[in-house]
Amino acid sequence: MAPYPIGDDGQRSFVDVSNIPFDAIERIEVLKDGASATYGSDAIAGVINIILKKTVQGASLTGDLGTASHGAGNTYHADATWGIGDLVNDGHNFYISGEFRKQKQILFADRGNQYTHTDFTSTGGLNVTLGVPNTLNGGIARSGTGYVQDPASGNIAGFMPGCSATSYAAGQCTYADTWDQIQPPTSNYNFVARYAQSLTRDWQLSLGGTFFESKSEQANRPQRTFAGGYQGVTSGPGVTPTVLPAIGPTTISPTNPSFPAGVVIPGGAGILRYTFLNLGPEITQTDAKSYRTTVDLDGKIFGSWDLNLAAGYSEVKLDLTGLNYVNPGNLQTALDSTTAPFLVGQPNTPAVDAFVAPVLTTTDTSKLGYAHAGVSRGFAVLPGGPLGVAVGVDYYNRRQHGVAPADVANGLLPDFSNNFTVGTQNVASAYAELVAPIMKQLELEAAVRYDHYNLSGGQASPKAGFKWTPISEFALRGTASKGFRAPGPAENGQSGQTFFAGTTNDPILCPNPAQINAAGNFVDQCVVAVPGLQTTNATLKSETSKSFTLGVIVQPIRDVSSTLDLYSIDIDNQIVSGGPSTIVRGNNLTPIPQYQPGGGTALVTPPAAPILYQSTSYINANKTKTDGLDLSLSYRHLWVGVGEFRSEALWSYTHKFEMTINGVTYELAGTHGPSFFTGDTGNPKSRLEWANTFGRGPWSATITMNYISAFNVTDPTLFAFLGTPADTCLTSLTNQGGTAGLAYAIPLSNGVIPNPKFCTVDHFTTFDLYTRWQVNSNFNVHGSVTNLFGAKAPLDWVTYGGALGAVPWNPSLHLQGAIGTFYNVGASYSF
Description:
The chain is mainly beta. The protein is built from 13 helices and 40 strands. The chain has a 26-stranded mixed beta sheet that branches. The protein is globular and about 95 Å long.
């Protein structure tokens, strides 16, 4: 399938597998060792194959409903499959499978507790509730009703209705977060159809087609007025980033009907501070439509050679829509208008809202065409069986065209991500595989593949493996392989993106970061969320890997079996965002609040413009070495007249995760690193899944334990970016962009860790229950309860993944802890 038009972090390609109708899946294969010799690029650490059904006879219907114990997040699911024709007896088969899924959103406000807790003063932190003045914001808080500053003194001159000077000083002009999501609303419409026709005894033709549509809606906090002015940057395919002329601070004059009554400001207009609650949160809507057609021809040639010919085309069309993103220039025009003014804290006409926050739209596409030809056959019979040989060729053409909405690319407004990729990638490949059963106890395999990329040249990937079974109760297996990951169009084509990667201090506007409110520091400049502008590098090489596995299979008795596999993977020339970095400031010298020697703040023209963005590119810089083990245990037993019991456990353990940056090696297993390269998700050493099933007659029940081990919040790789010793809890809490760096910015700047518990993310254990009752041969009822005992997500004070650091929660690892106990019931009928 064609990858999603926008890469993960704008870089790494992925396929949205949630689109595939579950009822059309025949099986899923998981290959845990390096597989580039078979599959080419991206198979460094293994492959997951989702294999659709070849034929279907009869029909089936399934429906499910789900809800959370704490409310919100309801899910609805239905699928239907129908097939006709027997390929053997009738010579043909046709089936179609369709699926509908809908998932409602879960807001932070639906869960409360850690997701809405914002007052940390009782534990030595700040009250970061929206609308509350504090040391970090210099007493200039966000406002849900609006107030006006005197541009000369910086003092608040007056409030719009809903707040007063007394209430503001007491921290009573607050407003609630009603938009941040634990789970966004999504919906899917998926269809798969396949027709197979026997042409002769040895030849078969198959035609396939799919259509998937996935919709979602992500919300972010409402935009604020631009009290510090705004300066945009143009960016896009073939466009040299250009800094636009600065726009002054957002002002409001007495001619606007929402100007505070009785307020007089020398010069007339004042600086407006307001959060656009009357517009609502910034919303990004996605509508991805995926199309896929395939044709396969299988048969025999030259008597004993099996031939497979295949071709296909896949396309993903992504419509992006941005709502409530404020255009600073249009906003000022509307505030100054005497005929259709923008009103602060009040409803406006649809025309005025549409002018201030024009709807942003763009359409991105990703296209993939492929062709394949391969032959295989068995040769001389060895003592263990026939010698198997396969050879073949592949050709892929991948085209990606993704651009930001015009206003975003032209630098006219902030916030909406400027993510663009325009490029074509052609890949020609040839491969050969050999399986040699030397004897009944020993099988050898070998494979080699050569891939040539038009953008990055050629790469050969060999692999060798063995399996030795001296006795039926014991087997030894192992592989050695080389692999690679070729740079994609987003890394070496016409591409770029803006992104957020933690917080830092502005070295010019915050000369004393050890004391945030020290005289001379400018407000908001000691904890700055600096946007990054990522550019590409046409000279990138492919990442290369060497991987080794060694494992044993033990089955001492019929009901007990176990496998132990050790693995080691070395990756060189890793493509990372780490090229020469350039800080771009522009020329916006609008006066901004500065802490004064006598206390308080004043509006002061800064000595340099605030940082607009930090530009960097991709380079082949890092090396990664990881090793660990996978241990599985399986037990099953049938008690006659009682029932059957099955128990299966899988433990994955990461022993080592070393990353080498600029010649320095950092150990990351069990830490939160590398935050800059992985979305700040963390690396727990152990994960365990243990499923126990008991079945009797028509019913069965399975309870599964899922365990993620604890890990510390340190990120040793911060040293590579900060240039100071970074493998400490204090440095990580301060610099990774999480909740601690905001809520406890003052004690952290003084070298104080608020609580030793902040230095560790606790382990997370959940239990899931699944039951099934086969009422008769055609009808079954099933149900499940995920997070059966309502385990809560552990606190993670450093990740910026929880609403960009606003909440101490890691959605990548602990999502079920935020959703809570979730119930699902359904039924299936086949005929």
